[in-house]
Design goal:
The complex is a heterotrimer of chains A (308), B (309) and C (409). With 308 residues, chain A is an all-alpha fold. Helix content of chain A is 75%, strand content 0%. By secondary structure, chain C is α/β, with parallel strands linked by helices. Classes of the chains: A mainly alpha (308), B mainly alpha (309), C alpha/beta (409).
């Protein structure tokens, strides 16, 4: 350790102390700034939706007329329902496919190849995927563009993400646990349902949410694969190039307000559940270790082990 | 032991598959693979093919001609403006990836490691997902409010006396394109890295500290290597995303520094102008880059790592 | 012996439904309800036979009245879907599935020739419409946008038309006078020192390139034979000129889309912009009003016309309703409505009389003087001897596109 005689190392020392004391605050400010940065566009949309002139600028007033126009806009409502429907379908198909792929992947031998194939769509810009698929389906297969062609595009887009998420959540499940269950007589389906599924449920839910959100906002592939009815992104695209339609700002703003509210509710719920869980522990109220729908008791494993 | 023989339909199916494990494997893995293969590989192969065809009477006609590539790359004395745009896009994509990497890693580190166990971690991450429920076009348009001559930044700066007039180049420049891109792609970088970091066992971090490592050492010698799959995935997301982005440059790009047309816009224009071989040629080149990236990843790190995130 | 583990006892006995279970049921219930709701809506709105299906009108948004007063369509209502201006996507879509999906379309007028050649639109004898003879002569005869050049057949009904030029912010460009000053009558304003760094042109070639061609050609700054039909040399000339202007920092941005256009001018980011006339109206009706003026260029306006065409589907399945719709666009309410909300000219003088008789009809109020002045002004554009139609489908359209893409890149 050098004896500090120079001003520089004193400065350094002071700096280190400063960071040590305020490090956490600096971190929080840093992350907070970027959270704000990312949330800036949606929040600005909320602001613009109340701007009476409908021009994209700092608010000069407050007005609800665009919300009124939105509700009365038949095209917008149709596009909204179609987007929701498509997103639901995409979520269902994608989550199922991704789950199957992840389950099969673990047992497969050509793991590298499978991963390469599954994640390839990520590497391709949407325009290329959409345009190539569209050309193939219409010119050379003679199909019409329709909801089903759009669905294909959306599933292709969401599948790699869902696959990766589910695969990640599966990495927590220890192989030994599953093997133990199967040794104890569970067949593959039961092992999955009772052991794995509860553990990877967050992963599956995340994958489902991912798929939904990705599909709802998908534009480039949808643009080339679309039949007659429009989804929200293509509706917005068509309208915004030729007409003044601030009612779409109103729609976006509602989506933002709704999702922020849901997140707030979830946060409050999570934190209070946390408190309740702690309180339970303190009062030593027992909670079931494994929530199984059958009456087959979870401790039967230990029971058998004792007997054996 | 009174054993309950579960005999629902799924259980019977499971009994069958217990005896025929390969059947189950194929049933599980084949549909997704077939789906991806048919709907991804076949169109991609078609694109390669189409880039050599020609267009007659507004229809793609089989043939062999490299004119699309020549025109795109400016070979043989042809103008090179498309190539210039391509190189500019690559430059912007790499820059953007670097920026997103540094910032995204820091944020993911904070949420995944420092904030571990905090109940606010999940809601925080959900917040990052909120923008994706709104239209990309409108989100990008809303940056006008912040960046324009009478926007938030200029108004605030002028009112506190820091500047006299509007700052040039805040909007309609390469800077604003980066601002717009970052707001979209930062979450794409954060999420995979966070995922990777949350898998790092707490005991490993504790062990590193116990062995005398300062936080900086733990960071570079434990967290980064273990989080590498996430870093790679995030980087790919951002890089490819920028390559395929046609919205941000059109809305936020400017005229003088030529930031409003990137490679994705060129593909768009080629398609809408029915120059299919040209669009296919550009797409093929990007595809080759993508395949090169995957191959390089496999050689350097091994693709299997992704599965172990 | 089987024992129930304690945990299960605690849950299934006496404590009732835990909050977690309740929230789970609520969540699942909400999702299921949403799914059922969406499914029901989709099912109820499925197309169910020709007579109940709405009339599908695919057209450029400027022709959309957004209300259907007085249409009295016997079969059902009308669904208007926005179409893009760009000619090639329009032609492609019509060739692919558009001809069997839409009943009527209204696109850029000069596309009638290629559309007819493709068989995407049909000759439905529009001359038989009751109001046909009332159409202004300037729009009815010698109108390339509704006449097939090779055969002389008339295949469209002109519904909306105007001549485009440049929007100018008077108070910024010529401060103090409130009136347009020097340079306000030529496209050269866009390339002038007055608007350096604050000028903008459209990123789509369809309208913009003709203004440059007219400027260079008619002022004899460059040799351009026929601004309405540009050769490769002409295009190169234009390209060089524009690239030089761009490099010198003349343009701030190449705009695209209505919201951008209005925002750029309202926020004074640009001072002169080649755009559509309704932008100027939107600016003038701001609160406080912005002194924006639409240029009257000596090189001539860029004339355009959006007619209604009928598709094969319309002809075979819904011909009567399509004819009824076309007739309706020639009548008073449609004319009054379109001119009031956008300032464009419609085909017959009925609108003026309608506004006079029904100033407070739906979608109004309708100002007779304003409508009359618009009719006079725009009709004049079509007969000033200088303005020409912009050709959306020239034979070398690829070159047009490439030139302008390079310019705006």
């Amino acid at each position: 350790m050098s004896s500090s005689g120079s001003a520089i190392s004193v400065r350094q020392g002071q700096l280190e102390v400063f960071f040590a004391k305020h490090g956490n605050l600096i971190w929080k400010l840093f992350v907070g700034f970027f959270v704000l940065y990312i949330l800036m566009p949606p929040l600005l949309l909320v602001a613009v939706s109340f701007e009476p002139s409908g021009i994209v600028r700092v608010n000069t007033g407050f007005s609800l007329r665009w919300y009124d126009k939105m509700i009365n806009s038949r095209g917008l409502m149709d596009a909204l329902f179609k987007s929701i429907l498509l997103a639901f379908l995409t979520t269902a198909v994608t989550t199922l496919l991704a789950l199957q792929a992840a389950l099969g992947y673990r047992k497969a031998r050509f793991k590298t190849l499978i991963i390469a194939i599954m994640i390839l769509p990520i590497f391709l810009p949407g325009i290329i995927q959409g345009f190539s698929l569209s050309l193939l389906l219409t010119e050379f297969l003679g199909l019409q563009r329709s909801l089903w062609t759009e669905l294909v595009g959306h599933v292709l887009w969401a599948l790699p993400f869902a696959f990766l998420v589910i695969l990640t959540s599966m990495s927590v499940v220890k192989r030994e646990t599953v093997l133990a269950a199967m040794d104890l007589g569970a067949n593959e389906w039961r092992a999955f349902r009772d052991i794995e599924y509860p553990i990877i449920k967050p992963g599956i839910t995340s994958a489902a949410i991912f798929s939904y959100v990705l599909s709802f906002n998908e534009f480039s592939r949808t643009y080339y694969l679309q039949g007659i009815g429009q989804t929200i992104p293509t509706y917005v695209w068509n309208k915004i190039t030729v007409a003044i339609t601030p009612e779409i700002f109103a729609l976006s703003s509602l989506t933002v307000i709704l999702s922020l509210t849901l997140i707030a509710i979830a946060t409050i719920y999570l934190t209070t559940v946390g408190r309740v869980a702690k309180a339970r522990k303190e009062k030593a109220i027992p909670r079931p270790a494994v929530r199984s729908r059958h009456k087959a008791p979870a401790p039967a494993a230990t029971g058998v082990a004792e007997k054996a | 032991m009174a054993s309950r023989r579960p005999s629902g339909p799924f259980d019977q199916l499971a009994e069958y598959f217990a005896d025929h494990p390969r059947a189950l494997l194929s049933l599980q893995i084949v549909p997704p693979l077939v789906f991806v293969f048919f709907f991804v590989f076949v169109p991609l192969a078609s694109i390669f093919a189409w880039s050599f065809w020609t267009v007659e009477n507004n229809r793609l006609v089989p043939g062999f001609s490299t004119s699309a590539y020549e025109e795109f790359l400016g070979i043989g004395g042809l103008p090179t403006w498309r190539l210039d745009i391509f190189l500019k896009t690559l430059r912007i994509a790499v820059t953007q990836t670097a920026i997103a990497l540094v910032l995204g890693f820091a944020i993911a580190y904070f949420v995944g490691i420092k904030m571990r166990g905090s109940k606010y971690a999940l809601p925080l991450l959900l917040l990052f997902a909120v923008p994706f429920l709104t239209s990309y076009l409108l989100r990008t348009l809303s940056w006008y409010i912040v960046l324009q001559s009478r926007g938030l930044i200029n108004t605030v700066l002028q009112s506190i006396g820091a500047t006299n007039g509007p700052l040039p180049g805040l909007l309609f420049s390469e800077f604003s394109v980066h601002v717009g891109l970052l707001s979209t792609y930062l979450p794409f970088m954060i999420f995979p890295i966070w995922l990777a970091m949350s898998r790092i066992d707490q005991t490993v971090l504790a062990a590193s500290a116990d062995l005398g490592g300062r936080p900086r050492d733990t960071l570079f010698r434990v967290v980064v290597p273990l989080g590498l799959p996430g870093i790679l995935i995030g980087s790919i997301f951002v890089f490819v995303g920028v390559l395929g982005d046609s919205v941000v440059p059109e809305i936020l790009g400017g005229a003088t520094d030529s930031s409003r047309t990137l490679i994705a816009n060129l593909i768009d224009k080629a398609i809408s102008g029915q120059q299919y071989p040209m669009a296919a040629a550009i797409a093929s080149i990007i595809l080759l880059m993508a395949i090169g990236l995957i191959w390089g990843w496999e050689r350097a790190f091994g693709l299997k790592k992704i599965g172990e995130i | 012996m089987e024992e129930k583990p304690q945990g299960q006892q605690a849950v299934s006995e006496g404590r009732g439904v835990s909050r977690r279970t309740f929230m789970k049921y609520v969540g699942v219930g909400a999702v299921v309800a949403a799914g059922v709701g969406v499914g029901a809506y989709a099912y109820l709105n499925r197309p169910s036979g020709v007579s109940a299906a709405p009339l599908q009108w695919w057209g450029i948004g400027t022709g959309n009245p957004e209300r259907w007063d007085g249409l009295n369509d016997a079969g059902g209502d009308v669904v208007f879907t926005e179409a893009p201006w760009d000619p090639v996507p329009v032609l492609n879509k019509m060739k692919a599935d558009g001809r069997n999906a839409y009943d009527v379309i209204s696109n850029a007028g000069t596309l009638d020739d290629p559309l007819f050649a493709d068989g995407s639109i049909v000759d439905f004898d529009p001359e038989t419409l009751p109001s046909w003879s009332k159409i202004y002569p300037e729009l009815r005869t010698n109108n390339p946008t509704i006449t097939v050049a090779s055969t002389g057949q008339i295949v469209g009904v002109p519904i909306v038309q105007n001549g485009d030029s440049v929007a100018m912010l008077v108070d910024e460009l010529w401060p103090g006078t409130g009136q347009p000053g020097q340079g306000s009558d030529t496209y050269g304003l866009l390339f002038d020192y007055l608007t350096t760094g604050k000028s903008s042109m459209e990123q789509s070639w369809a309208c913009a390139i003709y203004k440059v061609a007219n400027y260079l050609g008619r002022n004899h700054l460059q040799t351009i034979e026929d601004p309405a039909s540009l050769t490769t040399n002409d295009l190169n000339t234009i390209k060089t000129f524009m690239l030089n202007q761009k490099a010198a920092g003349q343009f701030k941005v190449f705009w695209e889309g209505w919201n951008t256009a209005v925002s750029l001018l309202a926020n004074k980011e640009v001072l002169a912009m080649d755009t559509w006339e309704p932008v100027v109206f939107a600016l003038r009706t701001q609160n406080p009003p912005i002194n924006a003026v639409y240029m009257a260029p000596k090189e001539g306006y860029y004339l355009w016309n959006i007619p209604i065409y009928m598709t094969p589907k319309g002809q075979s399945q819904t011909k009567d309703r399509c004819m009824h719709l076309s007739q309706w666009t020639l009548e008073g309410w449609y004319g009054a409505r379109i001119t009031t909300i956008r300032g464009y000219l419609t085909a017959t003088p009925d609108a003026i009389q309608y506004a006079q008789d029904n100033p407070n009809a739906g979608g109004g109020p309708y100002d007779t003087a304003f409508i009359q002045s618009r009719h006079t002004l725009v009709k004049q554009k079509f007969s000033d001897g200088v303005s020409v139609y912009g050709n959306q489908a020239p034979p070398n359209v690829q070159d047009y596109q490439d030139t302008w893409t390079q310019v705006t890149s």
